[in-house]
Amino acid sequence: MNKKVSLKDIAQRVGVSTTLVSYVLNNQKENRIRKDVAQKIRDVAQELNYRTNQIAKSLKTKKTFTLGLIVADIANPFSSSLARIIEDEADRHNYTVIFGSSDENPQKSRKLIDTLLKRQVDGLIIAPPDGAASQIADLQRHHVPFVLIDRYFPDLKTSYVALDNCAAVYAAVDHLIDRGYRRIGLVTLQSSLYHMNERKRGYLAALKDRNLTFHKHWLKEISPDILKPEIERATDDLLAGPQPVEALLFTNNTVALHGLKYLQSLRLRIPDDLAIVCFDETDALDLFYTPITHIRQPLREIGQQATRILLETIDKTNKITQVNLQAELVVRESTSQMVSKLVHGR
Amino acid sequence: MNKKVSLKDIAQRVGVSTTLVSYVLNNQKENRIRKDVAQKIRDVAQELNYRTNQIAKSLKTKKTFTLGLIVADIANPFSSSLARIIEDEADRHNYTVIFGSSDENPQKSRKLIDTLLKRQVDGLIIAPPDGAASQIADLQRHHVPFVLIDRYFPDLKTSYVALDNCAAVYAAVDHLIDRGYRRIGLVTLQSSLYHMNERKRGYLAALKDRNLTFHKHWLKEISPDILKPEIERATDDLLAGPQPVEALLFTNNTVALHGLKYLQSLRLRIPDDLAIVCFDETDALDLFYTPITHIRQPLREIGQQATRILLETIDKTNKITQVNLQAELVVRESTSQMVSKLVHGR
DNA sequence: CTGAAAGCGCTTACAG
DNA sequence: CTGAAAGCGCTTACAG
Predict the structure, then answer these.
(1) Which residues touch strand D (CB under 7 A)?
(2) Which of A77, A162, A319, B100 is 20 to 30 A from B76 in CA distance terms?
């Protein structure tokens, strides 16, 4: 790269001090600087194609205007949609974002936090993986500005923006019951993360409140490592036997994707053979032949609020803000009123 | 945040110079430094939880170990999949990545380049929007290390990693003709970007080489701003009249998504009523009731090669590398052998 | 209205 | 084997 032009270069060219150049280019002390000198400085800066060295500026001001974002996997549409919203909101405040994917792995997440902190990001937005509670507690202890998204640790008093996952699933199950379904299965991920437990809790609570006895084989907890085969086996199980489930709820977009794919291959008729609700809204859902009832997270709200809260925290460091948002149940044909099995063969 | 600990803090605590601390922590001059002193320094660094200030280091070394990535839209799975691959490859070389979305807008792309350069990224990976040729030429003139991905400007001698788009579409159309289809439509985006033109060119060349006369109403060029209604109208057009098309090719993932959605709503039978080929592979495709023949880009290759080429360029600045990769046609049921219209009503 | 100087937290050529 | 000192490119309190 060509030697970059610095304040000093401009100063020499104009015949003033770097102090003055700095003031002018930062629009400071405008009333105390001679108009013609200021203009000359601007002209030369323009002419030399000057570009602030943000690194040098940051070293001095101790502010990088950079945010660190740690998601589970930027290739997952849930993460990348959030990333886009955060990017835009950050940009609105002249912040830039560095991202990293943790792959739900606490070692990776720890390494990412370390890397980002070395780079002096002004704050972090983190979707923490299972097992990251201690790292988060560390951040807190060292007064690093951060806000959690999507997941959080109820034992830790930190800022976060998350969904009321229990209520979201509760509403979905309630809806299924309203529509006449009684044997309702849940396919979810094995995880000790709070948000996943909440989804399970919402399911159980809804069944209970409607006086449906829960059969434990209706609840399938899948290992994330061998997602596909396990989802297929779980689905087979749920549909086997004399009392197959009549409705199925998938608790996130990955599970839903593989689940729906498998149902497709089984040539099951939705909702006649099986009603379906999916957690998360994805473009993919639209291509399924039956429009799918799904739980829509307010992604824009999550991303924007997280960014704003983080920026506030960066300014005055002691505030903790916790935001719980409500999901929206988007009702489509995959949960139409149940038709008795004896009749539906039309 | 707590006052961060610096080399000086460690030096004072141990009673040595910062010089020594710097050498030890960077594993330099190891043979010249007393083992016990080195150990003591390491211990104290550990104890104080020291973390290098990468900003200060960068200012001195003029290297940030940061890459800038400009994609069209990080929320689009094509971009985010590439981002993930680039992230991993960069990480393998201890680089971190800052990203930004240009929304196919040259003003945004220019602003992003400016922001990233101010932040002293060591190099850029860019999927340039239509109209960005001059900015790219500027980068080149100022010897900024960069490599283009997905798109490039044939008039500019720059590094890039891209697909042989013409061959990709040619092969797809050829395949359709092999399978008995004669009236083949193309739905693509209005764009003067080379890669999009190449897709069109591949389509026309394939028809020509197989002696099929091209009817210009088979080629629909859609405005990206009003994608959905235009795709619907284009599809209607192509299917109307006494000579509707028998097969349709969508030239990218966004067009494909909207196109398939619309076909779905029309309750068209694929491939009986219409054969389909989509450009780009997405999870979404798997949910369509007929498995879709599609053009698969070697995303891993694109992302990894782009990253590696950029890192090479950063080291020795004068090299230009241009990589053209071949797509793979993944044949599925949406392009099964054509059945004569008179017979297919079984 | 303007500038000399210190300092942000590192690295590193040089001297001893 | 170790350290004093200069310098990366900025900002800014202070002096005039």
Answers:
(1) A 4, 6-8, 18-19, 22-23, 25-26, 28, 50, 52-53, 56-57, 59-61; B 15-20, 29, 31-34, 37, 56, 59-60, 62
(2) A162
